[in-house]
Amino acid sequence: MTNARLLFNPHHLDHALAGRRWSVSLEDIETVDTEPRLTGGFLDTLFGGGLRNRLRIDLVDESADLFVVNDLGTAVTVLTDSTDGPAD
Question: How many Cβ atoms from other residues are within 10 Å of residue 79's Cβ?
Answer without folding.
Answer: 21
